Amino acid sequence: MVERIDGRVVAQLINQATKQRVEHLAQQGRTPGLAVLIVGENPASERYVRMKERQAQRLGIHSELYRFSATTTEAAIIKQINQLNENQKINAILVQAPLPGELRFDRIIATIAPRKDVDGFHPVNVGKLFLNLPGNYPVACTPLGIMTLLNHYRIPLAGKQVVVIGRSAIVGKPLLALLLNANASVSILHQQTINLRTYTKNADVVIVATGHSGTVTTADFKQGACVVDVGQNLDQDQHLIGDVAYDDELSQVGFLTPVPGGVGPMTIAMLMQQTVAMCEWEE
Ligand code: GUN
């Protein structure tokens, strides 16, 4: 029988703990502060940003939203980031991806002070993660959420074969580092990989983060595999669907993260947790 990994329940547990940490900081007269920058009017980004604002408010985190038109310049965004780098009320800065037009996400991210880079996308933080350096530094929220789910459900990783499909800077690459740091043997598959199934059929854990529905199906997995679906796609009826197309014969799969209710709720929980942690690190 397949076991469903419940991201809503785990996210709620994390949010409760985060709220307590906020209350503890409040006793010392401190409030974590998150600044979110959004550029243009991408509907998915609008939805994420609304959820982030609402969750920050629920947990007692100070949040500020900065809106830019799709025709803004890199210089205008960077100017705002420089001000936020100096702003004592803000300890976490996030630029919502993707950016419209010719705006270069990497250039912009590199101007965030690494200690305020709550997404863990700055090259300094990415480097620390890949080197598995000790100490406190932010790590990309969706990969961190996936690791937290796997840990909560006691899915073993050390010595296991793990396949990640997708090589984005937001999910695939930081996941590679986290899984490697957890002693898994990791394969990253991507658009030019020939015959995905030869990899997925041998994998104990398959993490799918391509942004394309139907990337893999039930028959691609080994008996008892754990399948993590990072996809957030809309079908013809505007319903949220993942990257994995399961058929009715689910007995093959050991664990799966549903969409919605799997990885999705974890990303925001991790963002809030990390915003609070970064405030604590400042002591
Ligand atoms: N767009 C999709 N996921 C993310 C994320 O985790 N952080 C940011 N900044 N943008 C995203």
TrEMBL record:
<dbReference type="GO" id="GO:0000105">
    <property type="term" value="P:L-histidine biosynthetic process"/>
</dbReference>
<dbReference type="InterPro" id="IPR000672">
    <property type="entry name" value="THF_DH/CycHdrlase"/>
</dbReference>
<keyword id="KW-0028">Amino-acid biosynthesis</keyword>
<dbReference type="InterPro" id="IPR020630">
    <property type="entry name" value="THF_DH/CycHdrlase_cat_dom"/>
</dbReference>
<keyword id="KW-0368">Histidine biosynthesis</keyword>
<dbReference type="GO" id="GO:0006164">
    <property type="term" value="P:purine nucleotide biosynthetic process"/>
</dbReference>
<comment type="similarity">
    <text>Belongs to the tetrahydrofolate dehydrogenase/cyclohydrolase family.</text>
</comment>
<keyword id="KW-0486">Methionine biosynthesis</keyword>
<dbReference type="GO" id="GO:0035999">
    <property type="term" value="P:tetrahydrofolate interconversion"/>
</dbReference>
<feature type="domain" description="Tetrahydrofolate dehydrogenase/cyclohydrolase catalytic">
    <location>
        <begin position="5"/>
        <end position="119"/>
    </location>
</feature>
<keyword id="KW-0521">NADP</keyword>
<dbReference type="GO" id="GO:0009086">
    <property type="term" value="P:methionine biosynthetic process"/>
</dbReference>
<dbReference type="GO" id="GO:0004488">
    <property type="term" value="F:methylenetetrahydrofolate dehydrogenase (NADP+) activity"/>
</dbReference>
<dbReference type="InterPro" id="IPR020867">
    <property type="entry name" value="THF_DH/CycHdrlase_CS"/>
</dbReference>
<keyword id="KW-0511">Multifunctional enzyme</keyword>
<dbReference type="InterPro" id="IPR020631">
    <property type="entry name" value="THF_DH/CycHdrlase_NAD-bd_dom"/>
</dbReference>
<keyword id="KW-0658">Purine biosynthesis</keyword>
<comment type="pathway">
    <text>One-carbon metabolism; tetrahydrofolate interconversion.</text>
</comment>
<dbReference type="InterPro" id="IPR046346">
    <property type="entry name" value="Aminoacid_DH-like_N_sf"/>
</dbReference>
<keyword id="KW-0378">Hydrolase</keyword>
<dbReference type="InterPro" id="IPR036291">
    <property type="entry name" value="NAD(P)-bd_dom_sf"/>
</dbReference>
<dbReference type="GO" id="GO:0004477">
    <property type="term" value="F:methenyltetrahydrofolate cyclohydrolase activity"/>
</dbReference>
<protein>
    <recommendedName>
        <fullName>Bifunctional protein FolD</fullName>
        <ecNumber>1.5.1.5</ecNumber>
        <ecNumber>3.5.4.9</ecNumber>
    </recommendedName>
</protein>
<feature type="domain" description="Tetrahydrofolate dehydrogenase/cyclohydrolase NAD(P)-binding">
    <location>
        <begin position="140"/>
        <end position="280"/>
    </location>
</feature>
<dbReference type="Pfam" id="PF00763">
    <property type="entry name" value="THF_DHG_CYH"/>
</dbReference>
<feature type="binding site">
    <location>
        <begin position="166"/>
        <end position="168"/>
    </location>
    <ligand>
        <name>NADP(+)</name>
    </ligand>
</feature>
<keyword id="KW-0560">Oxidoreductase</keyword>
<keyword id="KW-0554">One-carbon metabolism</keyword>
<comment type="subunit">
    <text>Homodimer.</text>
</comment>
<dbReference type="GO" id="GO:0005829">
    <property type="term" value="C:cytosol"/>
</dbReference>
<dbReference type="Pfam" id="PF02882">
    <property type="entry name" value="THF_DHG_CYH_C"/>
</dbReference>
<comment type="function">
    <text>Catalyzes the oxidation of 5,10-methylenetetrahydrofolate to 5,10-methenyltetrahydrofolate and then the hydrolysis of 5,10-methenyltetrahydrofolate to 10-formyltetrahydrofolate.</text>
</comment>
